[in-house]
Every structure is written in C-alpha cells, then in structure tokens.
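Suppose you are handed only these lines of text.
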Amino acid sequence: MTPATTQPVRVLLLGGTGDALKIARQLGPADVYSLAGLGKVPEDLSCEVRVGGFGGSEGLARYIESEKITLVIDATHPYAAQISANAVRACAAARVPCWALRRPGWQAQSGDDWRMVGDWHELVAALAPFRRPLFTLGREPLAHLDEIPPHQFWTVRCLESHKDSPRARILAARGPFTLEGERALFALQAFDVVVSKNSGGSATEAKLEVARERRLPVIMLRRPALPATDREFDDVADLLHALRA
Ligand code: NAP
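From them, the structure of the protein bound to NAP can be written out as follows.
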C-alpha cells in the first residue's frame, strides 16, 4: 500500500528512539510524533507531539481514522514488539500504509563470545558462572533485585533512577556512550560479563568493543519477531528520501 494521493499526507510516527527523533525533526505541522511516555519529550519539533498509549491496536486504528492519518511509520525500538504488532494490525483495519524503520542488529565479530538467550529465565541460567555482570537491557533487572545469587553483584544501567541494593548498583544513564567512557567504566567496575539486547546502531555499541578488548562474554537477548510492513528501511536517510518522494 502507498499513501493515498487524494488527500494531503499526514504522518503518524511511532517513536521513542534516537532514529525516530531524527525523522521527527523532518516532519511538518500536519504530522504527529507519538511517544509511549517513558523518556524525554522533545519540545523543539515542528510536528505535533503526543504522549501515551492508544489502547491497543483497536485504539490505534480509531486514532488513525479520527485524526485522518494517511501513513504510519513505525520507528520504535527493535524490542518494542507490541507496538509494532499493533501498528500493522491497526493500519490494516484503517486501510492506511505502514512503513517501518528496522534497524539492523549488531553482528558478532571473530573472537566474540556471544551467548544467545530467548528470555529472562535463560538469561539467569547463562549468568550463573559469572560474578560481576553489567546489565544494559533496560529496566527488567530492577524487578529481580531480590533474586541476585550470593556470589553475584549486579550493575544495572538503565534510564530510570532506582535506589541501590546491597547486591546491586543502579546507574541511571542515557546513551550515546563513548568508547573512552565505557573503557573507564569497565576498568573501574571489573565486570566479567555484559548482558545486552541486540539493539543495533552506534549509540550503545561501544560496550561491545570494550567487551571484545577485554575478552568478556556477552549474554545477548535475541530480537523478537516483528511483523512485515508495506515498506521497510534499515536507514533513516532512505526512509526520509522515500517520504519526500
Ligand atoms: P511495547 O512493549 O512494544 O509497547 C507497550 C505499549 O506501550 C504499547 O502497546 C502502547 O500502548 C505503548 N507504546 C509503545 N510505544 C509507543 C509509542 N511510540 N507511542 C504511543 N504508545 C506507545 O514497547 P516497550 O518495549 O515498552 O517500549 C516503549 C517505548 O520505548 C517504545 O516506544 C520504544 O520505541 C521505546 N524504547 C524501547 C526500548 C526497549 O528495549 N523495549 C528501548 C529504547 C526505547 P497501547 O497498547 O496502549 O497503545
């Protein structure tokens, strides 16, 4: 499906990532940038910004119809599988095209020791031999601070601030992270394993380079399956080019 040509294009951009913000900066006053409401809300955009869920795919379909949206662009994080599935369902119901920015994942390089896991349960099992993990996969570990085994001390880096516990340090931080900064952090904290999502992109990639330098294993949470959309782009510039065309 391509955007309807009989009415002016009105884009709904689903975001919450640095790449989505780059797209949002190119949108105009007729367009809408949508955020779940977990992070910072930009105040310097030309487009409308809305914050908060739609109420599932039905709510999103109603929003698309009532706001006369002609094109939805899913530029959410590769692990935000629910909103991506909702977008495809809602677009089909509202009969508007859905495009997606699907950021390519990182690839293990020669000598890397990546241990792939599918869920929290597998992750905990893979973590058992280690003592000082660095978690870089968001807030999920915060729900498990009472379950840290006696031989482990966790460092959890995520957006939220949270009080430290006797067995964990919480680092509230937002990328991008530099190579120098990551080198300093790893040296100071003597991590023996990194726990990560395969987010792709450059903003949080430096930790993998430092893990490689220090020959540390990486426990990598597999990407969720995402639905096919009408058009997919792996690069912001290509998507913007198609949008202008
Ligand atoms: P999710 O599980 O796919 O979505 C949960 C619910 O949050 C959705 O059903 C929807 O609520 C609402 N939602 C998500 N993105 C939205 C958006 N852009 N605009 C309006 N509502 C949205 O998502 P998640 O993994 O919790 O991530 C939430 C947001 O954080 C996403 O927008 C994502 O881009 C961003 N983010 C996620 C990660 C990650 O690792 N998951 C990392 C960085 C940034 P309703 O059903 O009520 O519409």
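What can we learn from it? The pocket of NAP is lined by residues 14-17, 34-36, 38, 53-56, 59-60, 76-77, 79-83, 86, 138, 197 (CB under 6 Å). The chain is about 30% helix and 20% strand.
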